[in-house]
Structure to design on (546 residues):
C-alpha cells in the first residue's frame, strides 16, 4: 500500500529515553468542560466520535465543514483541473512542493512510487463526497476545531508509540488488518512509528489513531495534527527608540551582567521560522537545519519571526549599528519548521532532538495542540543534552490571555515557561499565566532585528522592528540569560539553571508573591510566576556555584 510517499533517503537513528512526569494537564480537563454548552446529543457526538487521545485524556474536536484535506498523485490534468475549480487554501502541486516526510527512518526495502504525492487544503465548494472519484485522489479527511476555536487539520498520518521494541510485530499485524501502512520510525525517538492511511484504509487517520490507542497494545497513538501550531508574536510597524528591556528600572538588569560575560562558548538553538543569516547584526548565526527537508542548510531559510527572536538573544554589541543582543557572543543555531503542513508535530520533535545534541539552550517561541512526540523530544533534551547535564529548554507561555499556560510550555516540570511583561512591569494583557508559569521577561515594544532584505512578511521596511510584542519576545530574553549563566559555569544542570533563574527573579508589578505548594524557589504569583528575570543576579549566582 506504499502509495502515500516518495522515499528518497534513509536516515540514521539512536535509542531514545521514554517520557516522564508531566507539568500541567488541568488545561485538558477544562478543554473538555468547555463543550458543556452543547446539547446532550451534540456532546455525545463530540466525545465519542470527534476526539483524539493525549496522555489518557480525550481531546474533543468539532467538525469543520468549510474545508477538506486531500492527498493526490500529481499524474494527470484531471486532478489539477478539479483543484483549481474547487478553491485552494494551500496546496503542494509542483515537484518542489511534493509531500516530504523528514525525520522518519524508512525500511530499506521500500520502493519509490512513480508519481509524486502532493497534498492540498481545499475549500469545500463542491460536493465533497465526490472528491475520491477524482482521478489521482488517494485520501480525503475533514477539518475540525478544538475547544478554543482553533482550526485543527489532521493529515493522512498518525503516530504510534510502542511500549517496548518487541511490540513492533503487533504494530505491523494491526496495520495489515486495518489496511494502513507503517512508514517507519522516528530517527531520534525510535519507539515512535508513523503510519499512513489512504482510501483503502478502514477509516481516516483520526479514527485509526483512536483505534490503535484503544486496543491497549501501545503506549500512545495520536493523529498528525498539521495546523494549530503558531509562532507567538504581535508585531506591527511602529518605531520605538529605546531598548527599555535591557536598561532602566523595568529591565532585566542586563548592563552589569554584560560586564561579566557576553555568552561565549555557548550555543543557543532557536526553533522557529528560520533566521536571516545575512543580517549585519547577526554575525553569529551558524548553518540552519530545515526539519521540513530533513537536511542541513540546503537553501537560505529565514523568517521575520525567527530573525526577531535571534536578535534579542545575540545581536552584535558595539558595532555602531542596530541593537544590542543579551548574549552577543553565543553561537545561534537556526532550526526551521514549516507551519501548517503534514508532519509538523514530528518536525518540531525532530528540531528539539537535533537541538538536544547540538545546543546548550533551546529557545521556543511557539506552541500548539498537545502531542506526545513533542513531550518525548523535550524529555530527551532535558535528560541527554549537554552530556547529561540537560539542555535548558525555554518556551513561551502563549498569547491568549488565558489562565492556562499553552502546550508545550506546560509539558514538563523541567521546561521554563516564560510570560511577557510591559514597560510598567505588569503582565502584558495577552500573556498566558497560571500554575505552570515560571518566570517573566519583557515582551512589549521590543526593538530587535528584522529581515535585511525585502520580503512581504517582514515587520518593517528597515532592518529592524521596534515593537516586537508577545511571549515570543519574552522567551528569548530568558534563553539568552540562561546562556550567560552557562558561559560562566557550564557545570550547571538544567535544574540548576531553572532554580537560579527562579530564586533571583525580581518581584515586580505590585503583585502579591506568596509561598506556594510545589514552588520551592521563593515566593510566587499566578500571573507573574517568580517574577521578572534578573540577568545580573542570575549570572552572579551561577558564578558563586563554581
Amino acid at each position: 500500500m506504499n502509495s502515500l510517499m516518495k522515499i528518497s533517503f534513509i536516515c540514521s537513528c539512536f535509542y531514545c529515553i521514554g517520557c516522564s512526569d508531566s507539568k500541567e494537564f488541568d488545561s485538558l480537563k477544562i478543554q473538555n468542560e468547555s463543550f458543556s454548552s452543547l446539547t446532550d446529543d451534540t456532546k455525545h457526538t463530540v466525545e465519542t466520535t470527534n476526539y483524539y487521545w493525549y496522555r489518557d485524556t480525550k481531546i474533543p474536536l468539532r467538525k469543520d465543514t468549510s474545508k477538506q484535506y486531500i492527498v493526490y498523485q500529481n499524474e494527470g490534468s484531471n486532478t489539477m483541473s478539479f483543484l483549481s475549480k474547487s478553491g485552494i487554501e494551500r496546496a503542494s502541486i509542483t515537484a518542489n512542493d511534493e509531500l516530504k516526510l523528514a525525520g522518519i527512518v524508512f525500511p530499506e526495502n521500500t520502493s519509490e512510487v512513480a508519481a509524486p504525492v502532493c497534498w492540498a487544503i481545499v475549500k469545500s465548494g463542491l460536493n465533497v463526497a465526490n472528491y475520491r472519484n477524482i482521478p489521482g485522489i488517494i485520501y480525503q479527511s475533514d477539518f475540525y476545531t478544538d475547544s478554543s476555536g482553533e482550526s485543527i487539520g489532521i493529515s493522512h498520518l498518525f503516530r504510534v508509540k510502542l511500549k517496548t521494541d518487541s511490540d513492533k510485530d503487533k504494530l505491523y499485524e494491526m496495520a495489515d488488518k486495518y489496511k494502513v501502512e507503517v512508514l517507519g520510525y522516528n530517527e531520534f525517538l525510535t519507539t515512535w512509528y508513523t503510519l499512513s492511511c489512504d482510501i483503502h484504509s478502514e477509516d481516516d487517520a483520526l479514527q485509526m489513531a483512536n483505534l490503535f490507542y484503544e486496543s491497549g497494545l501501545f503506549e500512545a497513538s495520536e493523529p498528525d495534527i498539521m495546523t494549530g501550531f503558531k509562532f507567538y508574536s504581535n508585531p506591527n510597524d511602529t518605531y520605538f527608540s529605546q531598548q527599555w528591556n535591557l536598561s532602566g528600572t523595568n529591565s532585566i538588569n542586563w548592563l552589569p551582567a554584560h560586564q561579566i560575560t557576553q555568552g561565549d562558548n555557548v550555543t543557543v538553538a532557536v526553533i522557529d521560522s528560520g533566521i536571516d543569516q545575512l543580517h549585519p547584526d547577526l554575525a553569529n548565526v551558524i548553518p540552519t537545519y530545515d526539519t521540513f527537508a530533513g537536511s542541513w542548510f540546503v537553501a537560505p531559510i529565514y523568517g521575520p519571526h525567527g530573525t526577531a527572536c535571534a536578535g534579542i538573544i545575540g545581536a552584535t554589541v558595539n558595532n555602531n549599528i542596530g541593537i544590542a543582543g543579551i548574549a552577543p557572543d553565543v553561537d545561534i543555531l537556526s532550526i526551521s519548521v514549516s507551519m501548517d503542513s503534514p508532519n509538523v508535530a514530528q518536525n518540531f520533535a525532530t528540531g528539539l532532538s537535533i537541538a538536544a545534541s547540538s545546543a546548550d539552550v533551546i529557545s521556543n517561541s511557539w506552541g500548539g495542540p498537545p502531542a506526545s512526540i513533542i513531550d518525548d523530544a523535550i524529555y530527551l533534551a532535558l535528560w541527554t543534552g549537554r552530556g547529561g547535564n540537560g539542555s535548558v529548554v525555554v518556551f513561551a507561555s502563549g498569547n491568549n490571555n488565558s489562565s492556562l499556560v499553552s502546550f508545550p510550555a506546560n509539558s514538563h516540570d523541567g521546561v521554563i515557561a516564560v510570560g511577557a511583561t510591559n514597560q510598567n512591569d505588569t503582565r502584558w494583557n495577552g500573556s498566558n499565566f497560571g500554575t505552570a508559569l515560571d518566570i517573566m521577561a519583557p515582551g512589549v515594544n521590543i526593538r530587535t532585528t528584522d529581515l535585511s532584505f525585502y520580503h512581504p512578511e517582514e515587520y518593517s521596511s528597515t532592518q529592524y522592528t521596534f515593537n516586537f510584542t508577545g511571549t515570543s519576545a519574552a522567551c528569548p530574553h530568558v534563553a539568552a540569560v540562561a546562556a550567560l549563566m552557562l558561559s560562566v559555569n557550564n557545570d550547571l544542570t538544567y535544574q540548576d539553571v531553572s532554580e537560579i533563574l527562579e530564586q533571583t527573579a525580581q518581584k515586580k508589578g505590585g503583585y502579591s508573591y506568596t509561598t506556594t505548594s510545589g514552588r520551592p524557589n521563593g515566593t510566587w504569583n499566578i500571573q507573574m510566576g517568580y517574577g521578572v528575570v534578573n540577568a545580573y543576579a542570575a549570572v552572579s549566582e551561577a558564578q558563586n556555584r563554581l
In short: Residues 471-488 form the longest helix (18 residues).
